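Q: I'm building a small set of examples for a reading group on sequence design. Run inverse folding on the following structure and report the sequence directly after it, with nothing in between.
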């Protein structure tokens, strides 16, 4: 009987095997290496749904049910640390990103995933960014790192609304750990930032939207950690402009405790940033281009900046806060400014640098779009705390491999290879509970397509599809072919 000839692996397949080998040790058990490889492979295969059963059908069409049970146990029940897997992903991917330049930003954000019912962990009627309105959804807070070349989420945790956090019955059914208590999103983000500082992640300027930047305690803690920031604020945020300040504490009269708190009176009041912007002359605003959009058109607008001191409740302080930049965007044709940022970037930085840093948040939006549309971030159908975080962690791990592959190659201009077709599902296969041939119980909510973004990178993104160009049922288990260019 002739000996079986081992398959010849492509260079991308070898890198994927190396990648899995780097992640597997942190899972705590050698038997988890194969489910890790299969699950991440399934997330990278073409297909509308990346929930467990459709992935099992693509990976092993002749043993769908047994493969489904194995993958479901791995993601929903196995006791492995999702934070350790994210750390291993970061250690592998960051060096490839840094080949193109140092880390420039830490991006704080959250993302919503529409979800029906009331029993999936963390589901509540709350604002869902994907839909742009209040809806039944799960929301997760994340921290990503980025430079001009690429970005990667390095922390990800479900936001648990207070009614969930205070409900012992629902917590028990969803397996929410006893240590998890209600936290606001800014406090969750600060916890992730502190952990990144403790882990020695290369530092960048913290970038966040109004939901985080408007929290004075959030900004103060970033400064205390030695991090600079460029964060969005509301139009009504109050500041002291240059030359203005609260009154000092009154003179000590020799009895009682010496007064220490700053004071205000009718002639010493801070201004809302929208009022301050209205006082600036037209010459203070300059047109700045910060990057090219997807259509090749330059993204530009009018900006002004001024040195200010944040005024929030400084009458409970003994001294004023340090000066920082107030950045104002007032596009042509608008009746008033549309966006405001506070930033602790150095005083000698140019307006262009300040604008580019504040606008770098688009990268995290692109990450979420690709994680949802390509890797199936929102497709997990389980209800538990552990399953939610394990699935999201494996999605980020799969996405991390794509980021590393992209960073390993120079830009390819406008030439984009079409994605390769993957193995076909068994004829007539339909996931359990599917009411429609599409395989989703509620396509309107479960498809999880991200909203179109108005602007994206000036470079055309190369699709990195991972799968053979023909249906190979058993071979798919042993060696998926990776297309990287």
């Amino acid at each position: 009987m002739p000996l079986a000839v081992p398959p010849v692996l492509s260079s991308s397949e070898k890198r994927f095997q190396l990648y899995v080998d780097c992640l597997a040790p942190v899972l705590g058990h050698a038997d988890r290496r194969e489910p890790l490889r299969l699950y991440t492979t399934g997330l990278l295969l073409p297909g509308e749904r990346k929930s467990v059963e459709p992935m099992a059908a693509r990976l092993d069409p002749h043993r769908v049910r047994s493969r489904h049970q194995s993958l479901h146990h791995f993601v929903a029940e196995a006791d492995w640390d999702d934070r350790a897997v994210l750390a291993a992903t970061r250690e592998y991917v960051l060096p490839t990103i840094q080949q193109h330049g140092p880390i420039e930003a830490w991006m704080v954000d959250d993302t919503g995933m529409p979800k029906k019912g009331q029993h999936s962990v963390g589901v509540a009627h709350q604002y869902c960014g994907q839909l742009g309105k209040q809806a039944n959804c799960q929301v997760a807070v994340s921290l990503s790192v980025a430079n001009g070349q690429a970005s990667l989420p390095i922390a990800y945790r479900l936001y648990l609304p207070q009614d969930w956090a205070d409900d012992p019955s629902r917590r028990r059914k969803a397996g929410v750990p006893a240590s998890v208590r209600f936290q606001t999103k800014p406090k969750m983000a600060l916890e992730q930032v502190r952990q990144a500082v403790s882990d020695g992640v290369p530092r960048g300027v913290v970038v966040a939207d109004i939901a985080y930047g408007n929290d004075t305690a959030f900004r103060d803690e970033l400064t205390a950690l030695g991090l600079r920031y460029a964060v969005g604020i509301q139009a009504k945020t109050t500041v002291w402009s240059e030359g203005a300040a609260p009154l000092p504490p009154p003179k000590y009269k020799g009895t009682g405790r010496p007064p220490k708190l700053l004071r205000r009176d009718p002639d010493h009041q801070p201004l809302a940033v929208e009022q301050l912007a209205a006082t600036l002359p037209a010459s203070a605003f300059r047109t700045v281009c910060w990057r090219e959009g997807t259509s090749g058109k330059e993204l530009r607008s009018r900006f002004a900046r001024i040195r200010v001191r944040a005024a929030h409740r400084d009458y409970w302080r003994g001294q004023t806060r340090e000066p920082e930049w107030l950045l104002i965007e007032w596009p042509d044709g608008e009746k008033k400014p549309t966006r405001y940022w506070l930033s602790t970037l150095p005083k000698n930085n140019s307006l262009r640098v300040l604008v580019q840093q504040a606008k770098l948040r688009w990268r995290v939006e692109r990450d979420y779009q690709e994680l949802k549309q390509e890797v199936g971030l929102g497709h997990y159908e389980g209800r538990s705390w552990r399953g939610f975080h394990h699935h999201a962690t494996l999605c980020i791990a799969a996405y991390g491999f794509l980021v590393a592959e992209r960073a390993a190659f120079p830009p390819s201009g406008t030439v984009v290879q079409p994605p390769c077709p993957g193995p076909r599902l068994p004829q007539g296969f339909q996931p359990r509970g599917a009411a429609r041939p599409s395989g989703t119980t509620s396509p309107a909510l479960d498809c999880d397509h991200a909203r179109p973004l108005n602007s994206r990178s000036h470079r055309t993104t190369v699709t990195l599809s991972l799968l053979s160009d023909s249906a190979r049922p058993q071979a798919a288990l042993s060696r998926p072919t990776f297309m990287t260019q």
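The first strand starts at residue 105 and ends at 114.
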